[in-house]
């Protein structure tokens, strides 16, 4: 069986590819070749066939989807489709080869940003797609397109919606809701940090290892996963305050933080950090993993705090904290 991973050297693909090799797939990594995979030390990479390709350039002549189809894959995992043009060009290229389209299982990486404001929490996969701008809206459009292809019998597709993707080499969203590494450094040093609002907004992380595990569970059970979407998060979300307290405890420090209304908070951080924090605080995701558990028998290995600690341990081993 042959699997093609588009964007296989990225922070999701770097964990997906080794797990596909482990379960017996011949794996092709499609990437621009601009960086090493995050898990390049794993021996599974010795078995991977790497193909350097610029998706955007090939799409200009409608050659990217055709290139993927020529590899005659049984599975395609697309980690880097962000627009309708990206996904339609890929699918149309696959469908030009009926023998490929009839067998291929396409796994698309989406996002929990498809859920805007929440009617109920934890959010299950049948929640309305009300992420009505930007990234979440585009990913919801891609999801709808793929599920329609599945209903029409043209391609079997599954969509996996990750939370805040994290891993050893990928800085996770911190207790302020942004990506500033200094927040982790301040907590480690026992310094006071500020938290937006009252610390009650939530974050829902996921380790890239568990995204890969869920994808493999989908591939192993296509009769159950085709035409479906699955949240991919840890079992439980963290509040900003709870997240901060757990990190201070991890470092053996007294928890020192103060709250600020968001408009005041944004004057204490950079404009970029403020916008990232606002995006996370305004979404405050809390997602359910019940569907993956009940339908596929999948449970994530890492909790939210374990995901963060995996990152911290690696960064500390490299002298980065």
Kindly describe this structure.
- The structure is a single chain.
- The protein is an alpha/beta fold.
- The chain has two domains: 2-165 and 206-232, Rossmann fold; 168-204 and 236-285 and 302-317, UDP-galactose 4-epimerase, domain 1.
- The protein is 41% helix and 17% strand.
- It contains 14 helices and 13 strands.
- The strands form four sheets. The chain has a seven-stranded parallel sheet with strand order 3-2-1-4-5-6-11, sandwiched between helices.
- Helix 1 (13-22) links the parallel strand 1 and strand 2.
- Helix 1 (13-22) crosses helix 8 and helix 3 crosses helix 4.
- The chain is globular and about 60 Å long.
The proportion of strand residues reads 15-25%
Shape estimate: globular
How many structural domains are formed by the residues? Answer: 2
**CATH class category label of the largest domain:** Alpha Beta
Protein topology:
Layout: E1 2-6, H1 13-22, E2 26-31, E3 49-52, H2 55-59, H3 64-70, E4 75-78, H4 84-95, H5 98-101, E5 105-109, H6 134-151, E6 156-162, E7 164-166, H7 181-189, E8 193-196, E9 202-203, E10 205-207, H8 208-220, H9 222-225, E11 229-232, E12 238-239, H10 240-250, E13 257-260, H11 262-265, H12 271-283, H13 290-296, H14 304-317
Parallel strand pairs: 1-2, 1-4, 2-3, 4-5, 5-6, 6-11, 7-10, 8-13
Antiparallel strand pairs: 9-12
Key traits:
321 residues, Rossmann fold, two-stranded parallel sheet, 17% strand, 41% helix, globular, 14 helices, alpha/beta
Summary?
This protein has 321 residues and is of the alpha/beta class.
